[in-house]
């Protein structure tokens, strides 16, 4: 299936590289359009794809499209594509753009799907939500699932849970990065060189996550494995609990979810 990318930035580029590297499509089946031609040309060289000069060339070349532009450029990008998207499929990775809001901006007969990938997709360790409420064909949906599985894990969710996924997985890299930074700061305070402390903290999160995902163990069980009676780790856990660590994380996720819902309501007003 020939695929066109409307936008060739970080996330669009990550998906394009992932689908070519994993063999979902061949490089020559990927077409790229960007208002900054240098971006699409560089990505095309990287994956063996084809950069096109106009939106019309893009819509003529492909059957399914990934809308990968910043939210402020959505209207201009879709206007440039115009009726060329009629009877074709558009997959949005634009943050905050609901399927309803996207459908309003597409020509009659165009099919669409809202998705929500997160930034670790750039290293093929992403989380992507696919909205259950969509108008893609079964064949297109299967292709899109394979596409996002090439850059991480995929979850199909009802529209009402997309903002919750965004609050956990979309914003989650920021929470994780803050935790890594704080762990490293603690190590520096205890005398570790910063570069080593940062690597130790980051690798510890990678390893812990891998243990949980591969073993199926509950996070609490993994915590208990490390907490020896009267030991250093249980003392650290006590300090975190005194500071309401878990409650603060829950509140952060809820705050992100509430903000995402507010943005959704605004975009659906049109």
From TrEMBL:
Recorded metabolic or biological pathway in which this protein acts: Amino-acid biosynthesis; L-proline biosynthesis; L-proline from L-glutamate 5-semialdehyde: step 1/1
Superkingdom per UniProt: Bacteria
Record's keyword annotation contains Nucleotide-binding: no
Record: residues binding NADP(+): 6-11, 68-71
Keywords: Amino-acid biosynthesis, Cytoplasm, NADP, Oxidoreductase, Proline biosynthesis
GO-annotated biological processes: L-proline biosynthetic process
EC number: 1.5.1.2
GO cellular component, as recorded: cytoplasm
Root EC class: oxidoreductase
Subcellular compartments: Cytoplasm
Primary residence: cytoplasm
Record InterPro entries: 6-PGluconate_DH-like_C_sf (IPR008927), NAD(P)-bd_dom_sf (IPR036291), P5C_Rdtase_cat_N (IPR028939), P5CR-like_CS (IPR053790), P5CR_dimer (IPR029036), Pyrroline-COOH_reductase (IPR000304)
Record-annotated Pyrroline-5-carboxylate reductase catalytic N-terminal domain positions: 2-96
One MF term in the entry's GO annotations: pyrroline-5-carboxylate reductase activity
Pfam family, one: F420_oxidored
Function: Catalyzes the reduction of 1-pyrroline-5-carboxylate (PCA) to L-proline.
Similarity comment: family membership: Belongs to the pyrroline-5-carboxylate reductase family.
NCBIfam families (UniProt xref): proC
Xref: PANTHER family: PYRROLINE-5-CARBOXYLATE REDUCTASE (PTHR11645), PYRROLINE-5-CARBOXYLATE REDUCTASE 3 (PTHR11645:SF0)
Protein name in the entry: Pyrroline-5-carboxylate reductase
């Amino acid at each position: 299936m020939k695929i066109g990318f409307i936008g060739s930035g970080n996330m669009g580029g990550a998906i394009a590289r992932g689908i070519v590297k994993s063999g979902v499509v061949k490089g020559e089946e990927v077409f790229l359009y960007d208002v900054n031609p240098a971006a699409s040309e560089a990505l095309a060289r990287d994956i063996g794809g084809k950069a096109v000069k106009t939106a019309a060339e893009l819509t003529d070349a492909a059957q399914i499209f990934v809308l990968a532009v910043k939210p402020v450029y959505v209207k201009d990008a879709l206007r440039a594509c115009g009726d060329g998207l009629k009877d074709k499929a558009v997959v949005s990775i634009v943050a905050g753009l609901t399927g309803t809001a996207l459908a309003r901006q597409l020509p009659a007969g165009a099919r669409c799907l809202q998705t929500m990938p997160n930034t670790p997709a750039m290293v093929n360790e992403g989380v992507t939500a696919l909205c259950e409420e969509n108008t893609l064909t079964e064949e297109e949906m299967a292709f899109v699932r394979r596409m996002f599985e090439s850059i991480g894990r995929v979850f199909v969710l009802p529209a009402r849970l997309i903002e919750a996924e965004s609050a956990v997985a979309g914003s989650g890299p920021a929470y994780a990065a803050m935790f890594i930074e704080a762990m490293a700061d603690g190590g520096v305070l205890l005398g570790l060189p910063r570069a080593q402390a940062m690597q130790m903290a980051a690798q510890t999160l990678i390893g812990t996550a891998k243990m949980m995902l591969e073993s199926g163990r509950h996070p609490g069980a993994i915590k208990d494995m490390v907490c020896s009676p009267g030991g250093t780790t249980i003392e650290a856990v006590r300090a975190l609990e005194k500071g309401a660590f878990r409650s603060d994380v829950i509140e952060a996720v809820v705050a992100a979810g509430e903000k995402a819902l507010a943005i959704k309501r605004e975009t659906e007003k049109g």
